[in-house]
């Protein structure tokens, strides 16, 4: 299947059959998910695989969305605050710069402004690491004849407690995965791309 076909065929599936997803297939999909780019190749994404009926029921009730219970697999995607201080993160970036560009460590000096900016950016990058992998997973799933749906987390504290996330692990989103019960009744439409494009500057 061509990538463009997978992109066009993907839709948010909210009705799943009982057919189980083989574990090997699930692991292959996650492997492909992790081929996505990530900030400084940190792959700051971890996945909790949820197949237990009671756990899925909990999620369905929490989000008030029955397909969370119906889907054979739900993936809780998380990201980790693994570098507690900005200094730690800068160190990592220094090493990264060296490896990729062959720059000597003393050539990479962060300004105060950069440190401040990094504090803010760090959190945004973490989410992007996860998001990129989710899209990979969804497109790979299409190729394997599976369907998915991306869901936001509604009750962060509830999820943290229920799935025993450590303090530095942040829940990002849920993905339902399985075989569709029936084809979608309708497909969502997109805005004309010209409405979303700005050439060179916004206005
Ligand atoms: C961040 C995010 C949160 C979403 N949350 C939900 C959700 O809670 N429940 C749901 O059924 N779909 C959810 N979706 C799926 C969107 O509704 C869907 O992608 C959009 O309507 C376009 O339809 P399509 O995916 O079928 O092309 C979410 C998608 C994203 C990216």
From TrEMBL:
Q: Which organism is it from?
A: Candidatus Roizmanbacteria bacterium CG_4_8_14_3_um_filter_36_10
Could you list this entry's UniProt keywords, alphabetically sorted.
Oxidoreductase
- Protein family: Belongs to the nitroreductase family.
Entry GO MF terms: oxidoreductase activity
| Listed SUPFAM superfamilies | FMN-dependent nitroreductase-like (SSF55469)
Query: Which InterPro entries would you find in this protein's record?
Result: Nitroreductase, Nitroreductase-like
Which ranges carry the Nitroreductase domain? 7-179
Q: What is this protein called?
A: Nitroreductase domain-containing protein
Pfam families to which the protein is assigned, alphabetical: Nitroreductase (PF00881)
